[in-house]
Amino acid sequence: MSERASIFDDDLDLSAFDARPKPKPDKESLRAVAEARGFPSREAVAVPAAPEPVLQRRYRTGRNRQLNLKVTDEALRRFYAVADAQGLVLGQVFEQAVEALEEKLKAEGRI
After folding, report:
1. If we measure between CA atoms, which residue out of 60, 58, 97, 55 comes closest to residue 75?
2. Which of 22, 34, 71, 90 is in Cβ range 3.0-4.6 Å of 39 for a Cys bridge?
3. 102 within 8 A of 96, measured Cβ to Cβ
4. CB under 8 Å to 3, separation ≥6 — which residues?
C-alpha cells in the first residue's frame, strides 16, 4: 500500500488486529526481580505501640479559650495526675492553680 488509509473510509479492514490477553505475572517472581533491582517494598512496617494511651478529655464547660504551654514531661504527668485524682477537667485544675498562686503572692505582698 503506497498511500495512507483515510480515517473516513468505512471499509477499513481491521481484522488483522487481535486483542491479546495480558499474561498474569507471578507475584513471587516479581518480588524476586524487584528485590534484586533494589526497589523498596511498600508493605506496612510495624509501628511500635504508644507508651501509654492518652485519654480524650472533652467536656462542655463553657471554656472557649485555648492556652498552649510547653512543659516538661514530668510537669505534664503531675498536672494530669492532679486532675485525675480530683476528678476535675484540666481547665478547672488550671484555674485553681492560678487562684492558689494569686493568694500566695497577695499574702507575700507581691501583687
Report:
1. 97
2. 34
3. no
4. none
